[in-house]
Specification:
There is one protein chain. With 172 residues, this protein is an alpha+beta fold. It has one domain. It has five helices and four strands; from the N terminus they run ααααββββα. The radius of gyration is 18 Å and the shape is globular.
Length: 172
Amino acid sequence: MAPIKHNSRLDLLELYKRPAINQISGFCEEIHQLRSVELVAAYLRAKDSAPRRHLRNKRYFVGHTGVTSSGENSNRREEHLAVALWNASQDGTPLLLPGTSELKFLDYQLPLKARQGDKGVGKVDLFGVIDRVRPCVIELKIHPVGTGPGDTPLRVFLEMREQIGSTMRARP
């Protein structure tokens, strides 16, 4: 594993692609090398260069129907789970969270790309609101039976950051 060069311009997309980020054996060492000030600076750079759908007159909520775009026999299990959760919530009953909070799903597979060339930008698995006030971004991970240990927490966080970072510039 190549060490992270400090005082360099850390790129979150490149960090996300590093094999050690998604390997339990290298995960702890990789985290140990990261500096919070570099992560914050990298996040701010990524936020500044993020796509802005609203500036291209593209909507985030595109009117999903509750049917997966990938078809029934797709291996895109996270998409299928997101659609199933969204469909289950369409009777108006919110999902009860620990304590007294309620989560209402507003949409699934929320698009973030503003144009075809937006690299590393995809869709948010589920988007909702907690207690009718707090936005909630949900990144689903399914660990297939018989495979390795799955994504590390840092890998999931970086994937979420890559996905939702594009929405940050849409805020005033």
